[in-house]
Specification:
five-stranded mixed β-sheet; tRNA processing; 15 strands; oxidoreductase; 9 helices
């Protein structure tokens, strides 16, 4: 049995004092041996964390015990090791950088489509249905749903300016999807704001779709990029295929590598053969760069801990009486 859980989740809910909530949340995660990245904003919470199975279950139970986050939909995967080396809990203007801070998905968003229904839409897709990937280039180049439309964007914050290119699709049924669902909440809401009337979103995103017994990831082509140490995960257990190509030679490869040149650090698919020949670099210039790191065949370089202290950044140290623990 894999002893670690990986949680992917978000919840749009009003947090009146994000700084105070962040501090409390940070302490709770430390005390429960959790690592990962959590973003707090007035509009809610967005996290990818990992830890022991019991610790993660406790976190889910405690977060959902708060009425504000009772409807949080956790995507839970299991792993042989912790997917993160550090814990970061930060306050930001939005829980996903979208340039759409005026939109509240709790007021209006695209209609949810559950994974089993989405599978049927894919299998019986007609010309009046559009499957829209709202993720960035580096994500959808690694994998996407069959026949999905992708956008040429480097970051999700560029999504609003691309909607003009979709105006010809206004009369069609638009079904958006992303990794875990959070981007679709605002993307679909923005489409509705711009006059699109028939807008839907895959509930729980690619990750939930791949986990469902009823879908088993069918018709997702390639791998799904994730924001933890796994980098990319398998989704399709029915009819998988590789769609990404090696950055160096162009052959099909879904083997994601960080360029060995620390100054470049480009994250791209590089096949195993080119990986060894290029010593983990994405180009001849990077191969000869003085900052090139030793290549061990994985293309993954653990970030330096640099004296990492999980309490750093807190406004106060833990000063609670012995026997007590922080609550969410």
């Amino acid at each position: 049995m894999k002893n670690y859980s990986i949680l992917l989740y978000y919840c749009y809910a009003r947090i009146e004092d994000p700084e105070a909530f962040r501090e409390q949340h940070h302490l709770y995660c430390i005390e429960n041996n959790l690592k990962g990245r959590i973003i707090i904003a007035h509009e809610g919470i967005n996290g990818t964390i990992s830890g022991g199975r019991e610790d993660c279950q406790r976190y889910m139970d405690d977060l959902k015990a708060d009425p504000r986050f009772a409807h949080t939909d956790f995507k839970v995967d299991h792993n042989d090791a912790n997917a993160f080396a550090k814990l970061h809990v930060r306050v930001k203007p939005e829980i996903v950088h979208s340039s759409l801070s005026h939109i509240d998905p709790n007021q209006r968003t695209g209609t949810y489509v559950e994974p089993a229904e989405f599978k049927e839409i894919l299998k019986n897709k007609t010309d009046d249905v559009v499957i829209l990937d709202v993720r960035s280039n580096y994500e959808h180049s690694l994998g996407k749903f069959k026949d999905a439309i992708t956008l040429d964007i480097e970051n999700f914050r560029d999504f609003p300016e691309k909607v003009e290119e979709l105006k010809a699709l206004k009369d069609k049924k638009i079904v958006t999807y992303c990794t875990g669902g959070i981007k679709c909440e605002k993307a679909s809401a923005f489409l509705l704001e711009q006059g699109f009337e028939n807008v839907y979103q895959l509930h729980g995103g690619i990750i939930k779709y791949g986990m469902e017994e009823a879908t088993q990831g069918e018709d997702f082509e390639g791998k799904c990029y994730v924001f933890d140490n796994r980098v990319a995960v398998e989704v399709n257990k029915v009819n998988p295929k590789v769609v990404s190509t090696c950055y160096v030679c162009g052959t099909h490869s879904d083997r994601m590598v960080n360029c060995a040149n620390a100054e470049c650090n480009r994250h791209v698919p590089i096949c195993e053969k080119c990986g060894w020949e290029m010593e983990g670099a994405c180009s001849e210039a990077c191969k000869s760069h003085p900052d090139k790191r030793p290549y061990d065949g994985t293309g993954y370089y653990q970030k330096e801990m640099n004296g990492y202290n999980p309490y750093r950044g807190l406004y106060r140290k833990k000063e609670e009486p012995q026997g007590t623990t922080s609550k969410l």
